[in-house]
Write a structure and sequence with these properties.
998 residues; alpha+beta; Phosphorylase Kinase, domain 1; Transferase(Phosphotransferase), domain 1; Thrombin, subunit H; 5 domains; 15% strand
Length: 998
């Protein structure tokens, strides 16, 4: 925007003559830093969008210049920069890519984004292309599919409007789009001046006007409104539902749109994927209907036309098939084999031999030492190499090592962990030629350490990052190779080495069986006769594919671990990770590796991981820090004494050269308590980069963000609020919803299953009370939070800081409270000594559900605040067919009010069917009807309806889709009911499906 120098009229940048006074107006902005303005695209109150080009670049960019009215300052710019990092992880084919937030030389903030050749919605609608229902439905289906993918990544767009959807210029019979997604819609919520289209949505959206929390289903309403606007060609519709009844409105889609536009979110489709699937079915049905509706004469003409043209098509097919087989088979035996040979020779020099030594030391004595070998390969000119986690950090899977550490600590000794990492590329001198002659006493007797990359010296290597192994049983079952990859980093790449290209577009479902591959590595490790590294190459084929790994018949041995699997296109599609084994049952179990059945981990996750490392995001390096627990205790002891600044200093010192998650979290908490929100935010980002499922870090980040300009628009808070019963972080999602609602009931305060949950819950409730000015209530809740937490819980120290941070003299009160805490800690320690024998017995009684139930009851008597033990004991009673005891234990748990969470929801279903097993059919049906009526969680209500025969089993299973959590709950509930009804075959069928869901 510019001003007329004669009359001060505000004018668009492109205007040359002032329409108010007729004066000639000078050109507006022509440059921003190194960017030359090519065209003004749009002007608004808060920003101006330009098409621009950098002097050093060939492709134009979109440059959004923020005006003074936007409210963008350094703090907002920092927030936007963080948002761009998150947005950068979204697929570029679906979402507009934003590159950076910058401040110009004259102090104006601007955003640089990719330039998209887009067509305006006005032009598209006036062209009449969307009056073609096939084109419109295809557009709708792809929009729903894109948003479904966005939802699965943890994001949603509740304020979705047409202007967020860019129409790409392209084919006339297809409308391609990109979404211009913003993590937070408003630069400053307090200064929001939405444009007309957005304001219209804000006025009309029932979730917004009704004050309901925005979630994924808010997106569904917004998208349904867009569908109705496009099909009715009326952009001013507030409530589009009346338009659905008009004669010219397509009736086959009206039912879907009507459900999307329901005021009640529970009536809307369950997910955006359901919308996409429904649209896909509509397209198929229209195609089938069109075929059926074609008149007989017209069909005959079409058949004749197909017959006449068939000869030409047949000839073309024969030529194509002939060419295909020529290239497929003649070339397979020649060119493909030759190509694979070329790849082997081309990349062999970039494949490296890795040796790791690790050991445990007590004082000056080595009590345990191991050496492991494997393969790594160069994937980046910056020096990144890819390998297996079990090659880079073999100690992580060494149970013997952990047993030894436990034994040493049991006698009050302090074990020390140390390791060495060495690596040689092809052609390097690596081995002692006299290996095998006499006894080798040290590494130098076997390896030429002087020529290796190592942790010290001029040729350095380090562990840049290690994928964390899955912790949940479901993850371990779904991913048997357990994300077994790690990334190494060398300080300089030898001249002439070419990084191996990773297949960034790899998709397991597109992998062809019997397609040829090669494996590069060192199958026999150091067991060779030469002293020079020499890469081994073996050929084979893809044999089978699974969800998270694939099988090859390439010969793979232990030393191949971490090596690349290269396809016929010359790209790395996987990492050699394991071999299948054969188990012979004899007096002694014999496990035999089957080297010709290699198991390969796809590179998909590794590609993302390496990209994050390139962007500077820290990762866990897998190195054991056996002193970390002691250092965390030191930090917590200082915090307990009220020495917050010293505790922060000690935490920062402990983090030097360490990426131990507990230390990072401790430092983040101390920075937050001391008011350094920026430092705390950086540390929580670090913790989440290492483990994106660190929900405590996500909650702390939400508190940090909500303390600034974001308020309750916090991105982290939104992510937490979207966690439902299927997520292991469901409890933290509940805390987030409690925090944003600003109110809680006495029942809410009982919605915990563990002492740690009670501590976090009462801390959050204390914050809410503190915000309401109810100081006494807040102090009471903070004290409750501190009492409930163990010494290792960070909620204890957060609550303690809030409790005693006021300026008045609280020395005597604090002293008395700390004494009370120390007494509680001593009691917990004593109880733990009583619990350990019971826990040992519980683990030994794996096949006896009744014994396990009895032990859990005993443990619960010693630890009554571990309420979930009652749930587990009730399930074990049901497994032992002890129906009365199962109902008794379930009753003890359910009599305490609580939130709808997986344990409570599952136990309610269990009790209704246990009653049926007990012969109390009427009571079972009554209880089930009551559960169905009072349950808000849609999926569990649908399961109840199916058990009551109000919903068909087929419909329930269809609604479960491919979501494991839904599949297992549906089939387990149906199977347990079928068993109670004496339908053994049906029960077995459901149980098999439940077990197979993971």
């Amino acid at each position: 925007m510019k001003l007329c120098s004669n009359c001060s009229q505000a004018l668009a940048e492109s205007v040359k003559i002032c329409p108010n006074c007729g004066s000639e107006v000078a050109d507006g902005l022509t440059r921003v830093d190194t960017y030359r303005i090519l065209e003004v695209i749009h002007e608004g109150r808060g920003s101006i969008l330009y098409k621009a080009i950098d002097e050093a670049a060939e492709e134009p960019v979109a440059l959004r210049l923020f005006t003074d009215d936007s409210g963008v300052d350094e703090a907002v710019a920092q927030r936007l920069s963080h948002e761009l990092q998150v947005l950068g992880e979204l697929p570029s084919e679906w979402f507009v890519q934003h590159f950076s937030i910058r401040c110009s030389a004259d102090g104006r903030w601007y955003r640089v984004s990719e330039w998209v050749e887009a067509e305006s919605w006005g032009s598209l609608l006036s062209s009449g292309r969307l009056q073609d229902i096939e084109i419109a439905y295809d557009l709708f289906q792809r929009l729903a599919a894109i948003l479904s993918g966005l939802h699965q990544s943890g994001h949603f767009i509740p304020h979705l409007i047409l202007n967020d959807i860019l129409v790409l210029k392209g084919e006339p019979d297809r409308v391609d789009v990109k979404i211009d997604y913003k993590l937070s819609r408003f630069l400053d919520p307090k200064m929001a001046r939405p444009g007309p289209m957005l304001q219209h949505l804000l006025d009309c959206h029932p979730d917004i006007s009704g004050g309901r929390p925005l979630d994924y289903k808010s997106d569904i309403w917004s998208l349904g409104r867009i569908f109705a606007q496009i099909l009715s060609a009326n952009m001013d519709l507030c409530d589009p539902r009346p338009a659905l009844k008009e004669e010219n409105f397509p009736q086959d889609i009206s039912v879907l749109i009507r459900s999307m536009l329901a005021d009640d979110p529970d009536v809307r489709p369950g997910s955006m994927q359901e919308v996409a699937d429904a649209l896909n079915r509509l397209q198929e049905e229209r195609e089938e209907a069109r075929e059926i509706a074609t008149p007989e004469t017209a069909r005959e003409v079409k058949r004749l036309r197909r017959t006449v043209t068939g000869f030409g098509i047949l000839l073309t097919i024969l030529l194509v098939i002939g060419g295909f087989y020529f290239f497929r088979f003649e070339r397979s035996s020649g060119d493909i084999e030759s190509a694979l040979e070329d790849y082997a020779n081309r990349y062999a020099g970039s494949v490296a031999f890795v040796m790791v030594q690790y050991r445990i030391r007590v004082d000056d004595i080595i009590v345990y030492s191991q050496v492991r070998e494997g393969t790594a390969f160069l994937v980046d000119s910056a020096g990144y190499l890819l390998t297996n986690r079990h090659v880079a950090c073999p100690w992580l899977e060494d149970d013997t090592l952990y047993n030894i550490i436990g034994q040493i600590r049991a006698v009050d000794k302090s074990p020390q962990f140390e390791y060495q990492l060495y690596m040689w590329f092809e052609g390097d001198n690596a081995f002692n030629q006299l290996v095998g002659i006499g006894a080798a006493e040290g590494l130098e007797d076997v390896y030429d350490l002087g020529s290796a990359y190592s942790r010290g010296g001029s040729k350095r290597i380090s562990i840049a990052g290690v994928a964390r192994p899955p912790s949940r049983t479901s993850q371990k079952i779904r991913a048997p190779l357990q994300d077994d990859f790690a990334v190494l980093k060398i300080n300089r790449v030898p001249h002439g080495l070419e990084p191996l290209p990773l297949d960034r577009e790899f998709k397991m479902e597109e992998l062809e069986r019997l397609s040829p591959v090669i494996a590069l590595g060192f199958p026999l490790g150091s067991r060779i006769q030469a002293d020079v590294i020499n890469v081994s190459v073996t050929r084979g084929h893809i044999r089978r594919t699974f969800r998270n790994f694939f099988q090859v018949d390439t010969s793979i041995y232990k030393g191949n671990s971490g090596g690349p699997i290269i396809d016929r296109n010359g790209k790395v599609i996987g990492i050699a990770s394991a071999v299948a084994t054969d188990v012979a049952m004899a007096p002694m179990v014999v496990v035999t590796p089957l080297s010709d059945i290699g198991l390969v981990l796809p590179v998909t996750e590794a590609v993302v991981f390496i990209d994050e490392l390139r962007r500077g995001r820290p990762k866990w390096n897998g190195v054991l820090d056996l002193s970390a627990t002691e250092r965390v205790s030191e930090i917590q002891d200082l915090a307990l004494a009220g020495k917050w600044v010293e505790a922060q200093r000690r935490a920062d010192q402990s983090l030097e050269g360490s990426n131990v998650p507990a230390l990072i979290m401790g430092a983040a908490v101390m920075h937050y308590i001391n008011g350094d929100l920026a430092g705390a935010a950086t540390l929580t980002d670090r913790a989440l980069s290492i483990n994106h499922e660190n929900y405590e870090a996500m909650l702390l980040k939400s508190l940090i963000e909500s303390s600034g300009k974001l308020g309750w628009e916090s991105t982290s808070l939104t992510q937490l609020m979207n966690l439902d019963w299927r997520s292991p972080g469901e409890f933290y999602g509940y805390l987030a919803r409690l925090l944003t609602s600003g109110e809680f009931s006495e029942d809410d305060l009982e919605s915990w299953n563990l002492p740690s949950e009670k501590s976090w819950l009462h801390f959050i409730a204390g914050l809410v009370s503190e915000g309401d000015g109810d100081t006494n209530r807040a102090r009471s809740l903070f004290k409750s939070s501190v009492r409930a937490a163990g010494t290792e819980e960070w909620s204890r120290y957060l609550a303690l800081a809030h409790l005693f941070r006021s300026g008045r003299d609280q020395h005597s009160e604090r002293t008395g409270f700390i004494d009370e805490l120390q007494e509680l800690d001593e009691q917990r320690t004593e109880r733990m000594s009583w619990l350990e024998p019971l826990i040992t017995k519980f683990e030994a009684a794996a096949t006896d559900p009744a014994e396990r139930r009895n032990l859990l009851v005993q443990i619960h008597e010693l630890q009554p605040e571990s309420r979930r033990l009652l749930v587990y004991a009730s399930y074990y009673s049901a497994m032992a067919s002890d129906w009365p005891q199962s109902l008794k234990l379930a009753g003890q748990y359910l009599q305490v009010p609580g939130r709808e969470e997986p344990l409570r929801l599952g136990l309610q279903l269990l009790t209704t069917t246990v009653l049926l097993h007990s012969g109390e059919e009427d009571e079972s049906r009554s209880r089930l009807t009551e559960t169905c009526r009072e349950t808000d969680t849609i999926w569990y209500r649908q399961v109840c309806e199916s058990l009551l025969h109000q919903r068909s089993q087929e419909d329930l299973i269809e609604n479960a889709g491919t979501i494991p959590e839904k599949i297992v709950t549906a089939h387990a509930a149906l199977g347990f009911q079928a068993e109670a009804e004496g339908k053994a075959e049906d029960a077995l069928s459901h149980y098999r499906e439940a077990l197979g869901s993971y």
